[in-house]
């Protein structure tokens, strides 16, 4: 290990250190990081579609989506730019509940999440099942702000946060694990913070 | 626009600090010479990893201000009083030190000669750094590409790369500088007072001659949000705008980080 001359650092508490994946630091704010301008989507025009390959299986309006069973989770989140934030609270619809409403059994093991701004990211189905993930519509009890991905964003808190696509408008089952926007641009295909899978080859 | 895939694994390497240049009262440039430094594209960043004697480590991402084709990597680091890494760079790091880094990273906020122009660059504060990489690369490799830089700082004294930017604007007919400062009425030529507004964007777009093919906006989140709204309102297509946001303004930034994602 190469020691950096003169570096002492500012250590987190032991408890915080246990919750921080390698290379991460604790952030109290909620930084905003996006690849382009912020799209502003009126909930009246908002649609969310579940697809198998190119085929739409079901599309929900904002009202229909908000009538689905609601799940609340509290999780730590980890951005690949090194910040982590603890105990974030989200409300939304679990992927299991979405599939049940669409009467769809998972037809493949992989999905691509798509966003209003053209962004996409891939997530294996196993990482979306149960209470691991959701389509979130509220953060800390209030509607998610546009720059944090509202009206609705994917939330997959156990993977680096670029997987939690903002401005979500579709989930698409794919035959293979297809790289999305950042995965095509040098970032890891899976993105597990605990294995520090930041970039291709990590 | 071409997508830059990562060429294989990004390995950590030791880079030697060869020069430290004071830019402003709170900003210094650290020139690092890595042993391997290839395929760098203007606008990319690097990760830096610091290791304490007991093995504790801290990582941060920093934008690169230098253009492709140079042996040194210029990291421009603003000292954040409550930061963990930037005060270390400002107070401890000296010429000859070894700093662990890996990169280049990021296949989106990039510009290559083949991407063409005109280019509209909009930077707030230290957000000018990756734009400087692009501006320098354009000047060296494709001066025929028209480019405009709108740079907003708090005061003229806080403008990073001030002398170089003015010299480029004076000496390069294809490069226009629109410098604006928000917390003083500037006495210096080339700088105007006030925030970026629709009138300024209109003036810049008229000066470019043709619509910008690529727009790059970098700075604090609130700045990027305001600037992108203005250029979209002036007709610049959403899909041609790339952004890089520093932390969570208007909340006081506690982060040294400086890159895109999620």
Describe it for me?
The complex is a heterodimer of chains A (202) and B (262). Chain A is mainly beta and 202 residues long. Chain A has one domain (46-195): Oxidoreductase, molybdopterin-binding domain (Sulfite Oxidase, Chain A, domain 2), CATH 3.90.420. Chain A is 9% helix and 32% strand. Chain A is built from 3 helices and 11 strands, in the order H-E-E-E-H-E-E-H-E-E-E-E-E-E. Chain A has helices at 14-19, 62-66, 95-102, and strands spanning 25-26, 47-52, 55-61, 71-78, 83-94, 110-115, 120-124, 134-139, 142-143, 153-155, 168-174. In chain A, the strands form 2 sheets. In chain A, strands 1, 4, 5, 8, 9 and 10 form a 6-stranded mixed beta sheet that branches. In chain A, strands 3-2-11-6-7 form a 5-stranded mixed beta sheet. In chain A, strand 8 (134-139) and strand 9 (142-143) form a beta hairpin. The mean pLDDT of chain A is 96. In chain B, the strands form 2 sheets. In chain B, strands 4-3-6-1-2-5 form a 6-stranded antiparallel beta sheet. A 6-stranded parallel beta sheet of chain B has the order 10-9-8-7-11-12, with helices on both faces. In chain B, a hairpin with a 4-residue loop joins strand 1 (13-22) and strand 2. Chain B is globular, with a radius of gyration of 18 Å. The longest helix of chain B is centred in the middle third of the chain and has 14 residues, at 128-141. Chain B starts with 12 loop residues before the first strand and ends in a 16-residue tail after the last strand. Chain B has 262 residues and is an alpha/beta fold. The model of chain B is unreliable at 248-262 (pLDDT under 50). Helix content of chain B is 21%, strand content 31%. Chain B has 2 domains: 13-105, Translation factors (Elongation Factor Tu (Ef-tu), domain 3, Beta Barrel); 113-246, 3-Layer(aba) Sandwich (Rossmann fold), CATH 3.40.50.
């Amino acid at each position: 290990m190469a020691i950096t001359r003169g570096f002492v650092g500012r250590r987190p508490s032991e408890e915080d250190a246990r919750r921080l994946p390698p290379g991460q630091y604790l952030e109290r704010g909620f930084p905003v990081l996006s690849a382009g301008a912020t799209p502003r989507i009126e909930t009246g025009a908002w649609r969310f579609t579940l697809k198998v390959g190119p085929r739409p299986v079901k599309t929900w309006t904002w009202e229909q989506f908000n009538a689905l069973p609601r799940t609340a989770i509290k999780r730590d989140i980890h951005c690949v730019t090194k910040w982590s934030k603890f105990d974030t609270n989200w409300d939304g619809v679990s992927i299991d509940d979405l599939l049940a409403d669409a009467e769809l059994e998972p037809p493949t093991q992989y999905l691509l999440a798509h966003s209003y701004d053209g962004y996409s990211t891939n997530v294996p189905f196993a990482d979306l099942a149960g209470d691991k993930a959701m389509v979130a519509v509220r953060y800390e009890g209030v509607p998610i702000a546009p720059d944090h991905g509202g009206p609705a964003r994917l939330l997959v808190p156990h993977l680096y946060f670029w997987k939690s696509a903002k401005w979500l408008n579709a989930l698409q089952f794919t035959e293979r694990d297809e790289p999305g926007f950042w995965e095509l641009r040098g970032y890891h295909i899976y993105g597990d913070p605990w294995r520090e899978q930041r970039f291709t080859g990590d | 626009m071409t997508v830059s895939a990562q060429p294989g694994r990004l390995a950590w390497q030791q880079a030697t600090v060869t020069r430290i240049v004071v830019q402003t009262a709170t900003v210094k440039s650290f020139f690092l010479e890595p042993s391997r430094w290839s395929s760098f594209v203007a606008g990319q960043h690097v990760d830096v990893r610091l290791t304490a004697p007991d093995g504790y480590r801290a990582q941060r991402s920093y934008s690169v201000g230098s253009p492709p084709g140079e042996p040194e990597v210029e990291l421009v680091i603003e000292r954040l009083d409550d930061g963990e890494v930037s005060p270390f760079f400002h107070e401890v790091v000296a010429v000859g030190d070894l700093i662990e880094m890996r990169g280049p990273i990021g296949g989106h906020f990039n510009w290559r000669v083949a991407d063409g122009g005109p280019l509209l660059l909009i930077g707030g504060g230290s957000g000018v750094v990756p734009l400087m990489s692009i501006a320098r690369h354009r000047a060296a490799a494709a001066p025929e590409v028209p480019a405009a830089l709108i740079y907003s700082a708090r005061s003229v004294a806080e403008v990073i790369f001030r002398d170089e930017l003015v010299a480029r604007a004076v000496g390069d007919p294809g490069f226009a500088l629109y410098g604006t400062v928000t917390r003083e009425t500037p006495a210096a030529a080339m700088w105007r007072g006030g925030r970026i507004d629709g009138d300024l964007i209109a003036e810049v777009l008229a000066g470019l001659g043709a619509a910008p093919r690529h727009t790059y906006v970098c700075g604090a989140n609130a700045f990027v949000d305001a600037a992108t709204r203005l250029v979209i309102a002036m007709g610049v297509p959403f899909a041609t705008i790339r952004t890089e946001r520093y932390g969570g303004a208007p909340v006081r930034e506690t982060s040294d980080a400086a890159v895109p994602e999620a």
